[in-house]
Amino acid sequence: MPELPEVEVTRRAIEPRAVGRRIVALRSRDPERYPHLERAQDRWILELLRRGKFLLFRLSGGLWLVVHLGMSGGFRLQQTPHTRVVFELDDGALYFHDPRRFGRIWLVADPAEVPLLARLGPEPTDAAFDAEYLYQRLRASRRPVKALLMDQEVVAGLGNIYADEALFRAGVRPTRRGHRVTRKEAERVVEAVRQVLAEALKAGGSTLKDGSYRRPDEKIGYFQLAHAVYGRQGEPCPVCGTPVRRTRIQGRSAHYCPRCQR
User: Fold this and answer.
1) 239, 242, 254, 262: which is deepest, by most CB within 10 A?
2) Torsion angles phi and psi, residue 161, rounded to 5
3) Quick one: which of 51, 70, 43, 262 has its CA closest to 173?
4) Annotated active-site positions, please?
């Protein structure tokens, strides 16, 4: 699933083509999955924002298009066999591409009408996401620390890849229970989250072996080349050489170095 860096890379790529443009039509192959899009016709795109893993198009007339990319969704500059919605604009077009059909688009008067969006925690770059905040959330829970980092109500935008990479840099094992993480370790986790996301954003995100994520111009991201643990089970840790291990946490994979992460 595209995480914060991939969604932000997408936002930055399509913003110049979308903001200031009038929506001539939104054409969908699946009107039941993307209802009421006809109400966006003839409205202007005033702003394009990101919140967690959501894209938010602010439209004239007090409406919002809220887009979640799902497992394999994204925007393209050209039509593809997996185009689900065509954003026909007064100067060009954008194409919502989603091979696995888990993406969603809502047309709402207030983004808070989308339940998960209304419950999102702070952005990783927000001042509110600091060591004290994370420590207090962790110490109140017996859930594994990785599960807490992936909880969108704790911090918005993190998923499997960047939670694994941040915990590796912080030296914290993903299976560690939240209440066993020290304040100093929480500080390291916050710093590592911010570093990893900044580097991933600069690299254009992570394109994994399935190739599902690509930028709107079809180019790949390159942060996968810098992954220390994610997807590298059995390979040597880049710091100590110990084979990277893979385990399952609440039905999701987790990768870690058994020597560097305690």
Assistant:
1) 254
2) -60, -55
3) 262
4) 2-3, 53, 252
Share of the chain above pLDDT 90, in %: 95
What are 54's strand-pairing partners?
Answer: 51, 68
b/e 105-135 (16+ beta carbons within 10 angstroms → b) = bbbeeebeebeebeebbbbbeeeebebebbb
Does residue 187 surpass a pLDDT of 90?
yes
pTM for the full model?
A: 0.96
- Point out which residues pair with 108 in neighbouring strands: 64
**Rounded distance, CA 99 to CA 96, Å?**
10
Give the pLDDT score at 148: 98
Q: Is the pLDDT of residue 213 over 90?
A: yes
179 DSSP 8-state letter: G
Q: Nearest CA to 36 among 65, 56, 75, 76?
A: 65
Does residue 16 surpass a pLDDT of 90? yes
Q: Which domains does the chain have, with CATH numbers?
A: 4-118 (3.20.190.10), 131-256 (1.10.8.50)
